[in-house]
Design brief:
Blueprint lengths: L2 E5 L11 H10 L4 E7 L20 H15 L4 E9 L5 H9 L5 E5 L2 E2 L2 E2 L14 H17 L5 E2 L17 H14 L2 E5 L14 H10 L3 E4 L12 H7 L12
Parallel strand pairs: 1-2, 2-3, 3-4, 4-7, 7-8, 8-9
Antiparallel strand pairs: 5-6
The chain binds zinc ion (2 copies).
Length: 257
């Protein structure tokens, strides 16, 4: 049974297609459950500094919620959840909590996309990797990810090794990082997303790495699936491969949470 809990919408400024096209793409592929989880407005920045090509505006947020609810009414042969992909920015937890409190989200994907203000998954900012100590960078990334899980703001940790996106991976074995992080995830009660967009990125592999998946399995953590589609064609993409990485019975649906 395939589910896709990570769909974007054109409101984020770097995705295309109507939300209805995403729904129809899922129906055509036999996906029984989907969840929209578009980028939350850049709440941690003053309004004039928010990039319209990275996330929707605060005014668009209620429209987004309404459109999901409207699609839910119109399409009864598929389950449509209202999710949101929320950036974790240390020190800004209260602002985020306030937004999440104001809307009836079914779940919140927790994402680390920034390290000290650097949007490390943004193709326009990739140069910075070439003069960084990659191992140190990974320690920093995983520290943020653990902090995010402990904040209790999130239900699911999205693409939990996104830092590998452009193929910069440490030479050293980082199994200790996977182990520590999965233990923090377990204690925080979060699920982990198996995100297939990594297959479409330079790194060419699913997030997270299979050794990280193994550590999560050892901890008894459940998984969700996400294509991270930014276009209707990518809805449901490669989810079968993600299921294989864990096991069908470890994939969690909100019907059996
Ligand atoms: Zn995006
Ligand atoms: Zn993301």
């Amino acid at each position: 049974m395939l589910i896709d809990y990570h769909l974007h919408t054109a409101r984020c400024g770097h995705a295309r297609g109507t939300m209805e096209e995403y729904v129809n793409a899922a129906r055509a592929k036999g996906i029984v459950e989907i969840g929209f989880a578009d980028h939350i407005p850049m709440y941690w920045l003053p309004e004039e500094e928010r990039d319209p090509e990275l996330a929707m505006t605060m005014n668009e947020l209620p429209e987004y919620v309404n459109e999901v609810e409207d699609l839910r009414e119109r399409f009864k042969d598929i389950t449509i959840w209202l999710g949101i992909e929320a950036d974790y920015i240390p020190g800004e937890e209260e602002k985020l909590k306030q937004i999440l409190f104001n809307y009836p989200f079914d779940y919140v994907l927790g994402s680390v996309h920034y390290i000290d203000g650097w949007g490390f998954d943004n193709p326009s900012q990739v140069k910075k990797y070439s003069y960084m100590d990659i191992e140190k960078l990974y320690y920093k990334y995983f520290a943020l990810l653990k902090q995010a899980a402990r904040s209790k703001l999130f239900d699911i940790m999205a693409h939990p090794d996104l830092i590998k996106k452009f193929g910069y991976v440490p030479r050293q074995n980082i199994n200790n990082l996977y182990r520590e992080t999965s233990s923090v995830f377990k204690n925080a009660g979060v699920k982990v997303e198996l995100n297939t967009s990594g297959l479409r990125a330079p790194v060419g592999e699913i997030y997270p790495h299979y050794l990280f998946v193994q550590e999560c399995i050892n901890q008894g953590i459940k998984f969700t699936l996400g294509s991270d589609a930014h276009s209707p064609e990518d809805v449901g993409k490669d989810l079968d491969k993600a299921v294989q990485l864990a096991a069908p019975e470890l994939i969690s649906s909100f019907y059996n949470r």
